[in-house]
Known about the structure:
Layout lengths: L8 H18 L10 H5 L5 H22 L6 H21 L5 H21 L11 H18 L3 H8 L6 H18 L1 H6 L5 H10 L2 H13 L4 H25 L1
Helix pairs in contact: 1-3, 1-11, 3-8, 3-10, 3-11, 4-6, 4-8, 5-12, 6-7
Amino acid sequence: MDFPLITDPLFYLVAVPAVLLLGISKSGFGAGFGSLAVPMMALAVSVPQAAAILMPVLLVMDLLGLHAFRKHFDWKLVRFLLPFGLLGVVVGALLFKLLDSHLVAGIVGIFTLVFLAQRLLFPPRPDSPHPPKWLGALLTVTSGFTSFVSHAGGPPINAYVIPMRLPPLVFTASMAVFFFVVNLAKWIPYGWLGLLDLRNMATSIALLPLAPVGVFIGVRIAHRINPVLFYRFIYWGMFLTGCKLVWDGFLA
């Protein structure tokens, strides 16, 4: 019996840079770019299949990120975020077969661009208060939901955490813990939905060697980057992600 691996060259042409971008994003550097991974891979396979293929890759990346930033977590923030993120995963699992993934992508894209415009046109003052917790809860549920549907959980939660102006390493470490737990919680519902088949998992194994490469590149940069430049890269990542998601949702 042939090994059930995707052999289409177009798939690997888009999957290799997508996985590398995801790894760099997992390190915190270029956060937001990782949300481009599924849309990029969707040029060659369906959105659900792309999301399923990335599951083992995400697990390896999450473990590497946890190890690299293990001394910098903001546990108070993480404890607040996790219950709402997991609630979003539950909502995503229950609605997965009812919602069009392209529509979800478009809505997330619009939200991302609106937040980015607000941040750039009306930048917060150094003494401005942190966003209210009710808004954080809503955005974090949205993050868990969009993470389940298309691994695009970064933009909503960034909209809540970025205004806190955390040091880059604390921001990166806290997001690493949050998404490790959220991504781990997605395995059972993904299996329940029949997405973790042999072909998808075999293809994921073929892509796994790229996971530490992307994370290593990002970690090296994240430890050396100026905080102002760090957040500029996040904004660029959110802008490109928002544009791509809007295109996928309403224009493609």
